[in-house]
Design goal:
Rossmann fold; P-loop_NTPase; six-stranded mixed beta sheet; alpha/beta; transport; single chain; 225 residues; ECF_ABC_transporter_ATP-bd; Energy-coupling factor ABC transporter ATP-binding protein; globular; 28% strand
Length: 225
């Protein structure tokens, strides 16, 4: 099965401080990969490489069958790959929740009416139906986390890159979010220190250690729709 996203012998970092060293990684359709490792291991850097927010110092980034190098190359990738940042404040910049969630669909060329409909549908699916006119900066940390996810899901991406998706969520909201993510068909890369989250979502895991990516034994506990 061809890969959706791939890193080939990728290096990243600085001469005196390498972050990734010769990383090989591939994500196929339907996979949900747990990306684990200690703080500072380079997990966020790997996610950012996949969408061109960081460029490799050596090696290749391949997305949907094409080598991607330039900013123009990655514009097309970001239309299909949704990255949920570790810090929700990095993702939310509009005055209201509805404007934030509709921004991505509008940017993809959907009409204002369709973008609004997509945004409202996504908010409802995440249990945020009453949040459309809420002022974004007044939300709690957990609410911001869910809205940040909504901004990505409203774009209907092919791949989801989730950087600590349950940070700041209470137990009930986390359980609801896991159930929602488990039912999605998108391929995913999930960075999380929460083993319960990974056990319920991931189909396999990889570990970053000292800049090197190791493939872990396949995870069998993930629940599939």
């Amino acid at each position: 099965m061809p890969s959706l996203l791939e890193l080939r012998e990728v290096h990243s970092g600085y001469p005196t401080h390498p972050v990734l060293r010769g990383v090989n990684f591939a994500l196929a359709a339907g996979e949900r990969v747990a990306l684990i490792g200690a703080n500072g291991a380079g997990k966020t850097t790997l996610l950012h490489l996949l969408v061109g927010l960081v460029r490799p110092t050596a090696g290749e980034v391949i997305a949907f069958g094409q080598v991607r190098r330039s900013e123009t190359d990655f514009h097309a990738v970001r239309a299909q790959v949704g990255l949920v940042f570790q810090d929700a404040d990095d993702q939310l910049f509009c005055p209201t929740v509805l404007e934030d969630v509709a921004f991505g669909p509008r940017n993809l060329g959907r009409t204002s009416a369709q973008a609004k409909a997509d945004a409202l549908d996504t908010l409802a699916a995440l249990g945020l139906a009453g949040f459309a006119e809420r002022v974004t900066y007044r939300l709690s940390a957990g609410e911001k986390r869910l809205v940040a996810l909504a901004t990505v899901l409203a774009m209907k991406p092919t791949v989801l890159l989730l950087d600590e998706p349950t940070n700041g969520l209470d137990a009930a909201t986390e359980a609801r979010l896991i159930q929602y993510l488990a039912a999605l068909k998108q391929a995913m890369v999930i960075v999380s220190h929460d083993q319960q989250v990974l056990a319920q979502l991931a189909t396999r895991s990889v570990r970053l250690d000292s800049g090197v990516l190791h493939h872990e034994p396949r995870m069998n506990s993930a629940k599939h729709p």
